[in-house]
Every structure is written in C-alpha cells, then in structure tokens.
Amino acid sequence: MTGDYYYFEGAAGKIYQAPLSNPPNSKFVFQLPLNEMRDGYVFASLYADGNQAYLKYHTGGAIMGSDHLIKLNEDATALEVDNGYSNYKKFDAYTVRVEQGFPPSNNNLKIKKNSEVKFVKIGNPEFAYGLFIKHESTQTSDQGNDDL
Would the pTM of this model clear 0.85, i.e. be above it? Predict the structure, then answer.
C-alpha cells in the first residue's frame, strides 16, 4: 500500500492497482512473464519504499537468470528501473546500486543523482560492496546483503 493505492497480484500473473477509497475500481498495471523453469508465472513480490510502490521478480535460472525491479506509478503505469543481480535503493536526491552478480566482483558500488540517467562508480575499486563473505576452513562463500 502506498499513498492512496494498494497493489495486488490477480489471476494469470496480472498486477493491479486499486484506490483505497474505491477498491472494486482496480486497474491493470503490469503483466508478469511466464516462468521458464516451471508452469505458471514468475514469483513476484510487492513492496513500498516511502510512497513509491515496487514489484520485484526473477526470470531464468539461479545463475543465468535476472532479477527485475519495476516501479509502479500512481497513474497506473509501470517502468522497469533495474535488472540483473543488484541491490537498489533510492534516497531523496540519489540512488545507490550495488552489483551482486556471480561470481562476485570488486568495484561494484554505483551512485547517481535522481535527475540523471547514468550511474557512476564510487568507493574503493579493490572492495566488493554489499556482500557478506564467509570463510570456513578452505572454502569462501558469499551472499548478497540488502543493507543500504
């Protein structure tokens, strides 16, 4: 729920927006893609960041797939704002993006002013940001960290 609307997934992978003041007056906003790995549509999650609604879903396999982040607007339009393996957080004036692909790589922290289109790399290029690195005897593993 964000602002004056709430969002929900209906039948056949359709995402809808409904006004809080008149829930039966829902509008179609976005069509989820079919799942390539099994029958049906991709699994999706909806969340709010402040007064902005977002939809997240994954296509393809675990390593060769891609995460998708969709911005759901109050005018019942949708816009893909990010795809790949990353963590993405919009602040008042800036947006931060951390690449979290496999295999993990250094120099993966980016930022942009919200009025601009292109991200710029920041931070120490020798560091891998946004990852929890676990060392056990002779093995090292990593896991994406969503803390921004």
Answer: no
How confident is residue 93, by pLDDT bands cut at 50, 70 and 90? very high
Q: What is the DSSP letter of 39?
A: S
Domain range summary for the chain, segments of one domain joined by +: 1-83, 85-148
Cα separation, 60 vs 62, in Å, equals 7
Residue 22 and residue 148: Cα distance in Å, rounded? Answer: 35
Q: What is the pLDDT of residues 12-51, one digit of tens each?
A: 999 999 999 999 999 999 999 999 888 899 999 999 988 8
Q: Pull the structure tokens for residue 41.
A: 């549509």
User: Of 73, 15, 65, whose CA–CA distance to 44 is shortest?
Assistant: 15
The pairing of beta strand 44-49 with beta strand 27-31: unpaired
